[in-house]
Structure formats: C-alpha cells, structure tokens
Amino acid sequence: MMIQILRLNERLWPLMTLLVLGTASVLSLMPPGGAVTAASMNDKVLHCLAHAAIAAPVCLARPRGWLWLVAGFVLWGVAIEIMQPLVGRDRSAADVVANLAGTATAVAASGILRSLIRLTRVR
Questions:
Q1: Residues in the chain with pLDDT values less than 70
Q2: Residue ranges of the domains in the chain?
Q3: Which among 105, 78, 76, 83 is positioned nearest to 94, based on CA atoms?
Q4: Backbone region of residue 40 per phi and psi (left: phi > 0; alpha: psi in -120 to 50; beta: other values)
C-alpha cells in the first residue's frame, strides 16, 4: 500500500506541492480575521504542519534538484513573513522557526520512510 502511495506521489508531487503552497500563501497573506483557523491549535503548530505538507511531496519523490526546491520553500517562508505587515499582520521570527521545523520534519520523515521501504524490499 505504501509503495502505491509513493508511486502516486512520484507522478503527482508537482500538483500536490503547488496546491498546498498556493493555499498556504493565500492563508498567510489574508488580512487578520480573514483566515479560518482551528481555535484549538497553536499558531506555530499550524505553521509547522503547513510547511511539512508543502515539502513532503517533493522530499518523498526526490526529483532532480529536490534539495534546491526545499531551500526555495524555506526562502518562501521567510518572504511570506516579511510581506505579512503589508496586509496588516505581524512579522514573526518564531513563525520562521516553526516553518523551518516543518520543512526539516518533512525532510527527515521522508528519508526515514524511504529507508524503511528499501529495507522491506531487501527482505
């Protein structure tokens, strides 16, 4: 089952990445009160989850230049924080750290998952 998901991801990672990246961009640049957020979730958790979701398809598919794409996501996260005061939102270094944590989580988790799949194929 997991291998089928990875095969599907290898074909659809550009679309999935663009959809999540676009959605996160719109939500990040909406004026205050315009975005629907989960009241029970911490803002930093949402940042971490969003950036993990952005990076995960690329990290799992590992296309040519995947590391440059991931670096671009990190820069995008910084740029979004810099632009937020333009729409009446606050700039936050803690949000940048949460974004980095989400991206790093996606890189690490995808590496572990790919290793586990390779190990199961060997047996």
A1: 1, 34-41, 122-123
A2: 2-28+39-122
A3: 78
A4: alpha
